[in-house]
Specification:
6-stranded parallel beta sheet, 3-stranded mixed beta sheet, globular, N-(1-d-carboxylethyl)-l-norvaline Dehydrogenase, domain 2
C-alpha cells in the first residue's frame, strides 16, 4: 500500500541515490535534487520527482533528508531550500558532517523552526542499495512517527540515541564507528601491500587467518577489491579522507590523541593526491608504493 509520507532527498550520490530508490520502492512520495542533475535523473524511473533546485524539492515535504559531501554542502543546500521550508518540517541530517559543522546546521534548524534529527548511517553502497543501513538517530520524539516509514525503507535498524539532535550524540557515535572502519580498511591495504613488497602470496595471508579471531567479513571484502583490481567505489578515497580528517579534528577537540587515525588520514590523502580519489577507499593500497 502506498505511503503518503513525502520525502525530499537532497543529494543523490552513492548513498543518497540508493536511499531514494528504497524510499520510492516503499511507496513514499519522493522528490530528489542533486547539484549535478544527471545523477538524479535515473531515479525518475523509480517514481521520484526530479527537482530543479532545493526549494522545489522541499516544498510541501513532510521530511527533508540531506545526504551530501560535508557539513558546509548541507548548510548551503538548506539555505537554498529555505524559501520553501515551513515550521515543523522534519529535517533528517545524514551527512557525515563532524562536530564543528553540526553546530551551524542545528542553528539553521532552530532559526527556521525545523524538527532537527541528526541521523548519520552505518553502511556503504551495498547495504544502502539493499535497504540494510543502520540509522543512528538523535532528535525529538515528535519527529519519530513521520520518520518511521522513512527509516524502515532505508535501514534494517534504527538506534535512537538522544532526543536532542543538536547534542551531536549521533554524530559522535558515527565518528567512533568510522574510526574503526577506516582503521580496518587501511590495515588491510597495508597488509596486502607488505605481502606484495616481501614477495609473499596474498592468498597465503588470507588462508593463514581464515576462520580465526583475525578473520572478518571486512577483510574478505576489501581484500577482494585489491586482489581483483575492481575499485568500483562503495565509499570513495576522497570521502574516506574527509571523514578521517573529521575524526582527527573531533579527537583533538576532545583532547584525545589518535596516532593511527592521523596516519590513516595521511595515507588516504596521499592516495587521493595520486589520482585515486574517486575509487573505492581500498585504493589506499597504492599509497604504499608512491604510484
Amino acid at each position: 500500500m502506498p505511503d503518503n509520507t513525502s520525502v525530499a532527498v537532497l543529494g543523490t550520490g552513492i548513498m543518497g541515490a540508493a536511499m531514494a530508490r528504497n524510499l520510492c520502492r516503499a511507496g513514499l512520495d519522493v522528490r530528489v535534487w542533486n547539484r549535478t542533475r544527471d545523477k538524479a535523473e535515473p531515479l525518475a524511473a523509480e517514481g521520484a520527482r526530479i527537482a530543479d533546485d532545493p526549494a522545489a524539492a522541499v516544498e510541501g515535504a513532510d521530511a527533508v533528508l540531506t545526504i551530501l559531501y560535508d557539513g558546509p554542502a548541507a548548510l548551503g543546500t538548506m539555505r537554498a531550500a529555505a524559501p520553501a521550508l515551513v515550521p515543523g518540517t522534519v529535517w533528517v541530517q545524514s551527512t557525515t558532517a563532524g562536530l564543528d559543522a553540526l553546530e551551524p546546521l542545528a542553528a539553521f534548524a532552530a532559526e527556521h523552526d525545523l524538527l532537527f534529527v541528526d541521523a548519520p548511517v552505518l553502511g556503504t553502497r551495498q547495504p544502502a542499495e539493499d535497504g540494510q543501513l543502520t540509522v543512528l538517530a538523535a532528535g525529538p520524539r515528535e519527529a519519530r512517527t513521520t520518520l518511521a516509514p522513512v527509516f524502515d525503507a532505508i535501514g534494517s535498524r534504527t538506534v535512537w540515541i538522544a532526543e536532542d539532535g543538536a547534542s551531536g550524540a549521533a554524530t559522535r557515535l558515527k565518528l567512533v564507528c568510522n574510526s574503526w572502519v577506516l582503521a580496518l580498511n587501511n590495515g588491510i591495504a597495508e597488509a596486502l601491500a607488505l605481502a606484495e613488497g616481501l614477495g609473499a602470496e596474498p592468498q597465503g595471508f588470507l588462508d593463514a587467518v581464515a576462520g580465526g579471531a583475525l578473520d572478518c567479513g571486512y577483510l574478505r571484502a576489501k581484500s577482494a577489491v585489491i586482489l581483483t583490481g575492481d575499485y568500483t567505489p562503495s565509499f570513495t578515497v576522497t570521502t574516506a579522507h574527509k571523514d578521517s580528517r573529521l575524526i582527527v579534528e573531533a579527537a583533538e577537540r576532545a583532547g584525545v590523541m589518535l596516532d593511527v587515525a592521523a596516519a590513516g588520514a595521511e595515507r588516504l590523502r596521499r592516495a587521493e593526491q595520486q589520482g585515486h580519489g574517486a575509487r573505492d577507499m581500498a585504493a589506499s593500497y597504492f599509497a604504499s608504493f608512491g604510484e
